[in-house]
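no rush on this but wanted to send it before i forget. what follows is a protein written twice so to speak, once as letters and once as structure tokens for the fold. mainly i need to know what kind of three dimensional shape the backbone takes. thanks a lot i owe you, the record is right below.
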Amino acid sequence: MPAAQTITVAVVDDNRMVREALAAMLSRVDGVHAVPSDVTDAAFLDEHQPTVILLDAGLGEEDSLGVTVSLAERAPYARVIIMDLIPTHEEIAEYVNAGVSGFVLKDASFDELVATIMTVAGGGKVLPALLTQSLFTQIANETARNRAPTMDAVRMTRREHEVVGLIGEGLSNKEIAQRLNIATHTVKSHVRNVMEKLALHTRLQIAAYSHREGNS
């Protein structure tokens, strides 16, 4: 593909191994040039002029929604895809209102990621399907699968236990932040840590774990 048609993808993640590995894989795709970064400052944007920005939803202590809003002002030419989104209606609405063009969930395949990038780069939107079942019906289904490790097998902090319990009550990240008197992006960081420790992929699986273990 000629250079003028090459899609430049910025992979923005605070985990160096993840961003570099993902950028290397994407750069092997015809017509894609990927660059890894843990920042989206003016120098990076001016140097690379990315067509698409893959933005991790859990940027350490940064507020990824705030970063998204800033990118809409500083890099209006770039289309933003949120990675690892925990798909609550509230968060989807916030990101869409901030100008996000697509979402890639944590359990997506590499082919799905590439397809999302191509669609978004071409001007399309890739939004997650709305949940068609009630929250507690899905919790029941996840509980029946019994995939998560037991409480005794996982070392979690007191705050992480609190977050798990509140997710089990059906609270959103914003509601959890208000209940615990902490920032919303801090809640997202705790949720991400819980998902990694429990080898779970969705908010519903965390809720199912909470109900099975009696945390809520």
